[in-house]
Amino acid sequence: MNLPLSDELIAEANARELAALEDDYDSLGRKLSRTGIDIDAIKARVADFSVAVPSWGAGRGGTRFAKFPIAGEPTNIHEKLEDCAVINQLCRVTPRVSPHFPWDKVSDFKALREEAADLGLGFDAVNSNTFQDQPGQAHSYNTGSLSSTLEATRQQAIEHNIECIEIGQQLGSRDLTVWVGDGTNFPGQQDLARSLDRYLEAAAQVYAALPDDWRMLLEHKMFEPAFYSTVISDWGSSILAAQELGPKAKCLVDLGHHAPNVNIEQIVARLHRFGKLGGFHFNDSKYGDDDLDSGSINPHQLFLVFNELVEAELNPREGFDPAYMIDQSHNVTDPIESMLSSAEAITQCYAKALLVDRAALHGAQQANDTMMAFQALRRAYTIDVAPILAKARAEAGGAIDVLGAYRESRWRTRKSQERKAVGLGAGIV
Ligand code: PSV
Ligand code: MN
After folding, report:
1. Which residues neighbour ligand 2 (ion) by CB within 5 Å?
2. Angle between helices 335-355 and 402-409 (to 10 degrees)
3. In this structure, which residue's CA is closest to atom 3 in ligand 1?
4. pLDDT tens for residues 315-339?
5. How many angstroms is it from 219 CA to the middle of ligand 2?
6. Own/partner pairs, 200-206, CB within 8 angstroms, 24+ separation
7. Given a cut of 80, is residue 424 above it in pLDDT?
8. Environment class of residue 382 by beta-carbon count within 10 Å: exposed (0-12), middle (13-18) or buried (19+)?
């Protein structure tokens, strides 16, 4: 393996932090043991946890209005993989990359898989893109894609999704994530029922091309780019479509794709109850699909989502194996730093959810003791689990202080001397 940062740099940085970490870890261990929790057992669960990073998250996303690139940003999938390898080398919880096509298209996917493996990375869900037109494309998606009224356009979208599956097979993926931007901006623009019929009929053809051990993850989104209606607008449409398509179709929850204030943790519980919880796109939002860093606005909601996921782990329904992924747009930070910070926030919420005294919670729920049920969650939420994560990371070869070690490596400055500048213009790629 050929990891991008020097192991010595990480080891030296860790040596400076180790004594304080041991002290904090031991102190937390004593505190947890008073309530019968073995800190090493929690650390082992944390060490097993992982979340994929999106290839498109390695660059500055920009908004509809502008993009402000930084020097040293990756300009192609090879450079994106390098940056993802830096993230995983430091935090050790992001060993897989989720690619997006055609953005990440190369001529030799076998070689790309080997290149990733050499960087300590594998591939996660492949994402199709039928929400933009590409140069030379025969049919525009301006009428939608899988739900377009135009047969040739639907066919093109079906073929693109099938091509993504074929690419994914070469990369070692086993999930196809399908998000369509299909929808309308005006009342009456499309027949709301018939557009769903067309989507279902086309999606069934993609589903039919799935290998036996593959899943199709349906990602819903209530608005943008369509602002009046979207075809797969909410978890209801998503689960109905997944049920109609078959057992390999599951729902993917992107935290930013709901109506404001909706109870996402309840959606998670519902989807799990019906065996349809397939995956997540973690991010945070204040107003809509803001794609802000995970846990930066509402870490408590993230904790409550993980609380449901730990409940789900304890009561698995058929095929419970959600694909965890980050999906963010970094507009004002170094994307590597944002993903390091998000991976930490996500793993912290998982660790806190593991600390919930389930017997106390379930007992209080059964006895209708509202305050004690709430306190069972609150007690876990307020524990600072950072030493558990840092220790698990250091033991796996990662950095105790991920951002400190990253800055010390001067990775971005070094890359700014090697990589060509990315163009201006808006949008994620
Ligand atoms: C759509 O907003 C989305 O969340 C989907 O996951 C896309 O594939 C991704 O963002 C990247 O644009
Ligand atoms: Mn998403």
Report:
1. 254, 281, 327
2. 160
3. 179
4. 999 889 999 999 999 999 999 999 9
5. 7
6. 200/241, 200/244, 200/245, 202/146, 202/147, 202/154, 202/157, 202/158, 203/146, 203/178, 203/241, 203/245, 203/249, 204/244, 204/245, 205/158, 206/146, 206/158, 206/161, 206/162, 206/165, 206/176, 206/178
7. no
8. exposed
